Amino acid sequence: MTQSTTVTFDDETYPLPPGSDVVALMDRIEAAAHSDTAAFVTFATAGSLVSVLIGAHTRVTVCVDPTAQAAAMGVLPDDWADWNL
Predict the structure, then answer these.
(1) Longest Cα pair distance anywhere in the chain, in angstroms?
(2) Cα 70 to Cα 18: distance, rounded to the nearest angstrom
(3) Rounded to the nearest 5°, which phi and psi values hold at 79?
(4) Which residues contact 57 (CB under 8 A, 6 or more apart)?
């Protein structure tokens, strides 16, 4: 099963390519947020390279969805359709 991962900076969301090292990216974002001055963090998205300026007040959300492929096929792991309720 393929998972889908996105990272959002304030209100801008970027899909990450499969196999991205999410933990390493999170470490770089955290280091930039804790630095004395704002710093750019560069990473690959599903279609390009992006550099985001990270400061102490940048809001960052990382979302890893392991059910993305199954959901795209219309089947979820907790699908109740086959429970005959």
Answers:
(1) 59
(2) 15
(3) -65, 125
(4) none
